[in-house]
Design goal:
globular; four-stranded parallel β-sheet; single chain; six-stranded mixed β-sheet; alpha/beta; 13 strands
């Protein structure tokens, strides 16, 4: 649809301009810094940063109704910069002009209602938001689109040059960073650090295929994170983990998309997400807060953060009901099928603490909750989801397990509607499915396969196959015709098929 075809009151707002005044704010000492240089932590106290717009109040000059219309009308445009997360440019990166936006097809992933059979089993109406349908097959592309658009903007402005993008990863972050860095060649190169033999082959193949320099080190993600943090402190590199506040901005798009999909009515809605490094739940809270402050949504939805028992430091922190007695304690993690969530010291924990308080205060009630689930439940529910026509990764299994746990604990009632997160494509974690089907999980995973969920291929080889195993055998010979007949009988017997009535 062309610009001239839109209503007059919307036409001048359709193409966003560079506006506002974005700043870094330290969550520790509350110092403010400009965005002209790459910052990840406060130079003064070392605490993490959030980006805020000093001119945010200007957004309230536009009515909530007009904002809703604007986002809905932008959906009709064919302009690449507005097809992705920058449809919400004024809330994500208002200073980034359309010409600097990097768009590779990220954002606006499907929200698919779960089939009736699985909804009855769970006892609630719910949807999967399939973020595995982002370009690198995970939700990380949202944050990368934001971070790399910002870097691209600085390059175009002449503020920086010859950038090396680095990140620590359990797989998805490295895949996304390598993809977006490759798109901006030769201005940007990328390097990623992975924990040795703790990333699936599919995830390892992605950064290698995009030309990143890949380093594997012994240990877990938290160890890799320490290395890249040290690199970013000593050398001129762009850190692309969720410690980067621009990543958080991009991931806010998840909440904006849910609001738009449900016609901005979030009453009785529940958002269920895995926690991991805590960047995603941070972004989702911040996104809903912004939309609420401007009046685009009138209700803040419930948010349920889910962690595995093998990596649950955030859940443990909130077990203490007395706010004054809460002390965050990093932990040593155990192996988890939800690999991206296997983090014992999430870098965004200070953001979580800050935003949970703000979210609950703004809602005038407790709206953010945390649950823990077993590894067994994660795998079982992932397989159940996929057996009902979904493409849930292990983290999608984690959120579904978390949903059922929250229902049992009374955190969610049957009149509410849940939107649960599948953060990546199921194919990335197919090795865990194979381990389940083969019953060869190492003991530390604490997973015993349910026979009802195991699936294997059947090898059909009747006696007649011996005569037709060569491809040179004519497909109209008597031997081959007999082979087909024998295979059909074998399959029909296995499936207990009934013969058609012969007329």
């Amino acid at each position: 649809m062309k610009i001239d075809d839109f209503p007059l009151h919307i036409k001048n707002l359709l193409i966003p301009k560079s506006s506002g005044e974005l700043k870094y704010r330290c969550l520790g000492c509350e110092r403010i810094y400009g965005i002209k240089e790459l910052l990840y932590t406060c130079p003064e106290c070392g605490e993490v940063l959030l980006i805020f717009d000093k001119q945010f109040e200007r957004l309230k000059r536009i009515s909530p109704k007009t904002w809703r219309q604007l986002f809905d009308y932008r959906r009709m445009l064919k302009i690449p910069a507005l097809k992705g997360i920058y449809r919400y440019q004024e809330f994500i990166g208002s200073t980034i002009p359309p010409e600097a936006v990097v768009y590779l097809g990220e954002g606006h992933t499907p929200i698919v209602e779960v089939n009736e059979h699985l909804q009855k089993k769970v006892g609630l109406r719910f949807f999967y938001k399939n973020d595995g349908q982002n370009p690198s097959a995970s939700f990380k592309d949202r944050g990368m689109a934001s971070a790399f658009s910002y870097i691209n903007y600085l390059i175009k402005q002449g503020d920086i040059s010859e950038i090396l993008a680095v990140c620590a990863s359990t797989g998805d972050t490295s895949a996304a960073a390598a993809l977006y860095a490759a798109y901006l060649k030769p201005a940007i190169k990328s390097a990623v650090l992975l924990p040795h033999k703790k990333v699936t082959p599919q995830q390892l193949a992605q950064p290698l295929g995009n030309g990143a320099t890949v380093f594997e080190i012994p240990g877990v993600f938290d160890d890799c994170m320490k290395v890249v943090e040290s690199l970013s402190e000593q050398y001129n590199v762009a850190l692309l983990n969720s410690k980067n506040a621009w990543r958080i901005l991009g991931q806010e798009s998840y909440s904006y998309e849910i609001a738009q999909e449900f016609e901005y009515d979030l009453a009785d809605k529940v958002i269920v997400v895995p926690i991991g490094n805590a960047g995603n739940i941070t972004a989702i809270m911040n996104g809903f807060i912004k939309f609420h402050q401007v009046g685009i949504i009138s209700t803040l939805p419930k948010i349920i953060g889910v962690q595995s028992q093998h990596a649950n430091p955030v859940y443990r922190y909130y077990l203490e009901p007395d706010v004054t007695k809460r002390v965050f304690k990093p932990m040593m993690v155990s192996p988890s099928v939800a690999q991206a969530a296997m983090i014992g010291n999430p870098v965004s924990m200070p953001r979580v603490i800050n935003l949970v308080d703000s979210y609950n205060q703004l809602a005038d009630s407790k709206r953010v909750f945390f649950v823990e689930v077993t590894e067994q439940a994660i795998m079982d529910w992932q397989l159940k989801a996929n057996r009902n026509g979904h493409i849930a990764c292990t983290h999608g299994g984690e959120t579904l397990a978390g949903l059922t746990k929250a229902i049992k604990q009374g955190l969610i009632n049957e009149n509410e509607t849940a939107i649960i997160n599948s953060t990546a494509h199921a194919i990335k974690f197919s090795d865990f499915q194979d381990m389940y089907f083969q019953n060869n999980f190492p003991k530390e995973y604490s997973i015993t396969p349910d026979e009802k969920l195991i699936n294997h291929p059947y090898f059909v080889q009747p006696e007649s196959a011996r005569k037709v195993l060569t491809l040179k055998e004519p497909r109209d010979s008597k031997d081959f015709i007999q082979f087909v007949s024998d295979v059909v009988k074998n399959i029909a017997a296995q499936l207990e098929l009934k013969k058609r009535n012969q007329s």
